[in-house]
Fold this protein.
Amino acid sequence: MRELLLGLRLLFGSGRGNRVRFFLMTLGSSLGVCCLAIVLAIPGILEAQDGRITGRQAVTPRDQSGLAVFDGYPLTLDRTDPYGSTPLTRVFTARGTRSVEPPPGLPSFPRAGEVFVSPQLHELRRRNPALTQLVPGEEVGLIGAEGLARPDELVAYVGVSRAELSGGSPVERFGERYGPPPTLDPTTLGILRFALSAVVLLPLAVFLSVCARLSAADRARRLAALRLLGLSKKGTQRVNAAETVAAAGLGAILGLGEYWAVNQLASRVGLPGFTWYPADGALTVQTLVVCLVGCPALAWYVGRASAGKAAANPLAVRRGAVEKPPSKWVFLPLIAGLGVITGYCVAGAAGHAPTSTTVSSLLMPLAIILAGVGLALSLPSLSRFLAQRMARSTRSLSLGLAMRRNEAEPGGAIRVATGLVLLVFAASLAQGVVIELNGVAKSVLAVQTYEVSYGELSGPQRRAVEAVPGLRAHVVTLRSDATDAGAAPSPEAVVATCGQLREAVPWVKGCVDGRPMRLWDATQPEESAKAGGSVVFRLKVGQHARDLKFSVPQQTIRYRDHEGIHVLPSGAILVPPAALPPNARPESATLTLVSGPSEKTVRTVLDGIGGIAPMAGVTTPGLIVDSFQRVTIVRTLLAVGMILGLIIGVAAYLVAATDRAVERRPQVTALALLGARARTLRAVQVVQVVLPLAVGLVLAVVVGKMAESSYLVTGGGAVFWDGGGVPLLLACALGVLVVAAVGALPLVGRRIDPELIRRD
């Protein structure tokens, strides 16, 4: 305790410079704690949203035999449809004679003709009155927050009579134990956690270490003086740790306050594709313990470790002492991490990607962490080696001074550059995560189809829908109403031209425009009505119904449909559009639209259909619209992590660069008194930082790309190598060098303060 009090007294009584340094340490720690709290809050936000979804799931009463009991219980029927590319959930309810608690967020069950809607759906109904056809009834209230997963969710509870809800299920309460799948499945959530750990937590550890080691040289000499005055070795370490713990503790409290303000603001504004309620991001006990206990504990460890040299050998930190060369053991983590990463890269190149997900899920993150830590630890040794070689061979005064300084103090410039190097390393790895997520979200089908009931579209709507950007083809499929073709099943009819067929399927042979013909998928057995039979289709011409009779033709069109999805029904009759009467509208027909499978294209098509015909029911075979929302959430959270990593990396650079500039002022002043020009001194300062930083960035790009490739190999996807990301990384590295060069300029002015070099 005596040493802790001494450390605090030295903190507040050792001049304005130390108080400024303490303020910077506190501010840096608060920023790091705020970023850490954001990362820790993300799983809690998702869990709270999943909990509310589970809480509104209906529980069906059952008897001893497991059959549903309808006697007097309210009835519910859930329907989830795409509104554009957003899921719209409609819950049709009918009151019963039994008293049952209403769904969460509702004061009571809606009566027949009434509807409760979410706030976002309320705004959509106000802007688009046509939505009342899809969500019928008089709006009597809004759904509360406890009944919605997110503020922008589209949900409606529609009241109907029991006679209208014959297909509904009885409900005795809400809060099904086994609800729907979580917003993010465990695999996707594991990918997200791994990405956030690499992109945020690794630079955060460097940043907190930089903040805890501000003015390290001055503090080391002050601690050495205390040690020479008789303070014990452990006592000296405690004195230094007291200051770092005080800064970290105060910074943790300020950081949690900053997080609270960020949560309140961001939750009300929302992120692209992801919104939440402020209560979802409330600080948990786990977050409080990690921030209020873990960060000061880390500061205690860093403070004791940084004081170890001054406590063990006080004379080793004097101004004229020669710094001990970095140990060769610092390369061990980098070599170990690169060994595992290289092994996975070789296995992927040889076509023997590992199949043991358990081993890879443990070994791959460990290898990446070792590579990142080893990259940071090995930079001083590499900088010293480079400085020695260049100082012996150069004839430039600026370059010679810069390299001799880096040789004598290799950790000085690297302390400034480490955060930026790890930022580029993490950015390279984040590219791999994005590629893997794109592979997960990418449709495995060759095309995507959309089925819309023909009767739900007016003539102008149908023509507008067929012209939606992104569509490749469209066909109309009719179901027959009567047949005399014997025992064979009634074939369907496809209204399309030969050109539309060729756009809809990969291969067509034998099609002749203007002639009815039979469609036969060459990969399917022929199951159609016998040739010569007749098939009747009912059409509506104006206000009158009319039957259209076709004979089953003998001519056959052979085609091959897409693998995994069928656009055309095999055995159907191809009917030329000209064969239909003018203004004819089939009563039982389906409009099938075909587009590419990419997420962007599917979103464009769904949004286009939703904007033209919001009431039309759209079926998307092989596609769950909820998956769009999941992928959007993951990408948004990953983008948040990358922004946080960028903030942390830049903050670490600014703090370290400012601290180094202050520490270097005596040496810069001494060189100015010896006659060095300001231009020369600026060149020395820039070269001191830029050259070791350039080496570190090259290593970060190489090691990062290898880590990305090994991560993709273990992910089980089809993409192992991402050459397209190299130009972007190189551009980022070049930008980092420019920023570092500008920020490394010394604080040299025309006025020379002799006090800065008096003690030297």
Notes: The longest strand covers residues 75-83. The two ends are 34 Å apart (CA to CA). Residues 483-487 have pLDDT under 50 and may be disordered.
